[in-house]
Write a structure and sequence with these properties.
The complex is a heterodimer of chains A (327) and B (196).
Chain A (H helix, E strand, L loop, with lengths): L12 H17 L14 E6 L5 H12 L3 E6 L11 H11 L3 E6 L4 H7 L6 E7 L5 H16 L13 E5 L6 H12 L3 E5 L15 E3 L2 H5 L4 E4 L15 H8 L3 H5 L6 E3 L12 H4 L6 H20 L17
Parallel strand pairs in A: 1-2, 1-3, 3-4, 5-6, 5-8, 6-7, 8-9
Helix pairs in contact in A: 1-5, 1-11, 2-11, 5-6, 5-11
Chain B lengths: L14 E5 H18 L6 E5 L3 H17 L5 E3 L31 E9 L3 H11 L6 E9 L11 E5 L6 E6 L1 H4 L3 E6 L9
Helix pairs in contact in B: 1-2
Classes of the chains: A alpha/beta (327), B alpha/beta (196).
InterPro entries (chain A): Asp/Orn_carbamoyltranf_P-bd, Asp/Orn_carbamoylTrfase, Asp/Orn_carbamoylTrfase_sf, Asp_carbamoyltransf, Asp_carbamoyltransf_Asp/Orn-bd
Pfam families (chain A): OTCace, OTCace_N
Enzyme class (chain A): transferase
Chain lengths: 327, 196
């Protein structure tokens, strides 16, 4: 595993499976009376959020605190950034304070990569979503949720998602979640199909390791999981589809469509859901929708990532990682 | 997690100090000692420390069930994140912590491990226990005590006291993990990656 987590595409199959297995053990801590582990005691983690986020920030914060890290929250609003400070100066300020890791969300694609490779800081960088590029921990928690539901919490240990058919529906163009998921699911052996109106399919999608379809109804019957993406109104500055109603009719998931899915198949949503748009309330509240589970799994998965990146003297999986245990 | 290197073909210097039948006898004796010391083992909970301590814990539980005629709760306690050398190595893969359904509060917890050496594993286990509950008392059962303690920790039940030098390695192999039961005493190989 590398020192930073910038893109889901950087993870090897073994890295990803190690993260999912570790997350499975982290999930068991949530059932204990004291939901805390000492692994990151004395480490300082900064949550550097240049973009609004509730669940990702809270999820990271919960994960950091459960691992006993010292947490500093930095929101761009009302900070030195709103006074015109550059990313470089912010980074160097954090470095001077002695942080061990930076969890960064930024509106510009590539900001975490810049932070990690610029030499401005020594800290490990974890991408919590950058522009329309990547959101690797979301992809990991999605894969974790799929493995738990489709294979099983214990049966899934050590397993990838080989042969599972995953359909990702909606605003692929603006979705870093879709990009990260395509990369990670491909690495884990799953077959991914993207479904979107032609206007919301990005240029160059033919080079992605996935299929593309314009018809949701055709792929539902052969999907093990259907992942609905939020229609990102805040990033839509052009008319990508005629009306919201038309979008909901063609690409929204309602109970009639859900009935066409195989018995075991699950409905996923990274949140926040826009009920009535990409998903009806009925589907969102059904047993088969894992949206709430994904939130819980997000904490476990982020704990796993933080532990594997920061728990030792170097990231997990490096050459000396598998030495003998000293008694 | 893996303690496989140094075993098998590369162990021309390793000689067995305990064989399968010896291990079985030793575990039977420890089970009887637990029953004796705990006056019937009514509130005993066995917690094995991964990897091989877990199998020893399960074997001890089976023997205790034979002796007392009751099911003895048995589980596992992963100590990875409580190790004092966590920061000196890359993070290790976590093992399973499985606490029996009735918990450990007010019970007599017997920690089970294969080799007692520096005592640091047991210190970490005591810390881990602290986050899970408050036992009435904690005792320690080990298959082999090889000495060289670095902390004020001792075992309550010892399968075999094995005086060793620091240049030697002690390796426990169990059928569940390694395909056979044996304890091997060998010379440390040149690469000083870890000690046991």
């Amino acid at each position: 595993m590398m020192r930073h987590l910038i893109s889901a595409a950087d993870l090897s199959r073994d890295d990803a499976v190690l993260i999912l297995d570790t997350a499975e053990e982290m999930a068991r801590v949530a059932d204990r009376p004291i939901k805390k582990l000492p692994a990151l005691r004395g480490r300082t983690v900064v949550n550097l959020f240049f973009e609004d986020s509730t669940r990702t920030r809270i999820s990271f914060e919960a994960a950091e605190k459960r691992l006993s890290a010292d947490v500093i929250n930095f929101a761009a609003k009302g900070s030195s950034v709103s006074k015109g400070e550059s990313l470089k100066d912010t980074a160097q300020t954090l470095e001077a304070m002695g942080v061990d890791a930076v969890v960064i969300r930024h509106g510009a694609s590539g900001a975490p990569y810049n932070l990690a490779t610029s030499g401005w800081i020594d800290a490990a960088v974890i991408n919590a979503g950058d522009g329309t590029h990547q959101h690797p921990t979301q992809a990991l928690l999605d894969a974790f949720t799929m493995r738990r539901r489709l294979i099983g919490p214990d049966a899934g240990l050590g397993q990838d998602l080989g042969g599972k058919r995953i359909t990702v529906v909606g605003d692929v163009l603006h979705s870093r979640v879709a990009r990260s998921n395509v990369d990670l699911l491909h690495t884990l052996g799953a077959e991914v199909t993207l479904v979107a109106p032609p206007t919301l399919v990005p240029v160059g999608v033919e080079s992605w390791p996935c299929e593309v379809s314009y018809s949701l109804d055709q792929v539902l019957a052969k999907s093990d999981a259907v992942m609905m993406l939020r229609v990102q109104r805040e990033r839509m500055n052009a008319a990508f589809f005629p009306t919201e109603r038309e979008y909901a009719r063609r690409y929204g998931l309602d109970s009639d469509r859900m009935a066409k899915m195989p018995e075991h198949a699950i409905v996923m949503h990274p949140g926040p859901m826009v009920r009535g748009m990409e998903i009806t309330a009925e589907v969102a509240d059904s047993e088969r929708c894992t949206a709430i589970e994904q939130v819980a799994n997000g904490v476990h998965t982020r704990m796993a990532v933080l532990y594997l990146l920061l728990g030792g003297n170097e990231p997990a999986g490096s050459p000396a990682a598998r030495t003998e245990e000293s008694k | 997690m893996d303690t496989k290197n140094g075993s098998g073909s590369g162990s021309e210097v390793a000689r067995p100090v305990l064989e399968g039948p010896d291990i079985a006898r030793v575990l039977t004796r420890i089970a009887h000692e637990i029953v004796e010391r705990a006056k019937g083992a009514d509130d005993v909970v066995l917690l094995g420390i991964p990897t091989r301590g877990v199998f020893l814990g399960q074997r001890l539980a089976a023997k205790l069930a034979e002796i007392t005629g009751r099911e003895i709760p048995v589980g596992s306690l992963d100590i990875t994140m409580y190790r004092d050398d966590l920061r000196m190595h890359p993070p290790r893969a976590l093992a399973r912590t499985e606490i029996p359904a009735d918990g450990i509060d007010g019970r007599l917890v017997v920690l089970v491990d294969d080799v007692l050496f520096s005592g640091r594993t047991i210190r970490a286990a005591l810390d881990a226990l602290n986050d899970i509950g408050r036992p009435r008392a904690v005792q320690l059962a080990v298959l082999v005590d090889r000495g060289h303690r670095e902390l004020p920790i001792r075992a309550d039940y010892v399968g075999k006291n094995l005086p060793t030098s620091l240049r030697e390695t002690v390796k426990v192999q169990l059928a569940e993990e390694d395909g056979r039961d044996t304890v091997l005493l060998g010379e440390k190989q040149a690469a000083p990656v870890g000690e046991q």
